[in-house]
């Protein structure tokens, strides 16, 4: 299953750094990488000691005001193929699921992709319940359910 992320690549305008932050669709940090350069003492102090480390996506969005950084944002893949592969249960009528996907708003596509992980976790706790066909998941708006808290 391919999970979706929003990626922020931060390049230093006055230093040889390139950092990459990947966020889950719920806005929480999934991964931090140093792509180029090394953290010096000043950067370590700024990021970790002074509490600037952006563990939530809304925090890194505020970095656009920092003149020393150039930030590139990679949006999550909201194509139907991305959903189809992430959902994993490739049964039923693919074309019907694709037509439903095309009608969804961007916000609902994000919710649908984000909810897959929680839905799968729910199913793993509830033995004997089959995973819904992708078309059912979309048409019945399973992605609006609170799978994280469902028993």
How would you describe this protein?
The protein has helices at about 40-50, 55-60, 80-85, 95-105, 105-125, 135-140; strands spanning about 5-10, 20-25, 30-35, 70-75. The protein is α+β, with helices and mostly antiparallel strands and about 150 residues long. The protein folds into two domains: about 5-75, no CATH class; about 80-145, no CATH class. The protein has a four-stranded antiparallel beta sheet with strand order 3-2-1-4, with no helix packed on it. A hairpin with a 4-residue loop joins β2 (about 20-25) and β3 (about 30-35). The two termini are about 25 Å apart.
The percentage helix is 25-40%
In terms of per-residue confidence, which ranges show pLDDT below 50 for 5 or more consecutive residues? none
Name the helix and strand elements from N-terminus to C-terminus, one letter apiece: EEEHHEHHHH
Which geometry do the CA atoms define?
elongated
Rounded to the nearest angstrom, the distance between the terminal CA atoms is 23 Å
What characterizes the major β-sheet?
A: 4 strands, antiparallel
Structural domains: how many: 2
Global mean pLDDT: 89
Which strand-content bin applies to the residues? 15-25%
Tally of helical segments: 6
Structural class category: alpha+beta
Can you list the strand order of the major beta sheet? Answer: 3-2-1-4
Task: Using the CA coordinates, give the radius of gyration.
Answer: 19 Å
**How many β-strand stretches?**
4
């Amino acid at each position: 299953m391919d999970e979706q992320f929003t990626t922020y690549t931060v390049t230093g305008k006055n230093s040889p750094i390139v950092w990459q932050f990947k966020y889950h669709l719920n806005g929480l940090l999934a991964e931090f990488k140093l792509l180029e350069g090394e953290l010096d003492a000043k950067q370590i102090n700024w990021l970790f000691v002074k509490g600037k480390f952006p563990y939530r996506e809304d925090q890194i969005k505020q970095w656009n005001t920092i003149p020393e950084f150039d930030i590139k944002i990679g949006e999550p893949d909201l194509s139907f193929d991305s959903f189809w592969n992430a959902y994993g249960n490739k049964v039923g009528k693919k074309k019907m699921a694709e037509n439903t996907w095309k009608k969804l708003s961007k916000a609902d596509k994000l919710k649908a992709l984000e909810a897959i992980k929680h839905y799968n976790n729910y199913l793993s706790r509830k033995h004997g319940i089959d995973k819904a066909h992708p078309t059912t998941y979309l048409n019945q708006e399973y992605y609006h359910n609170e799978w994280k808290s469902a028993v």
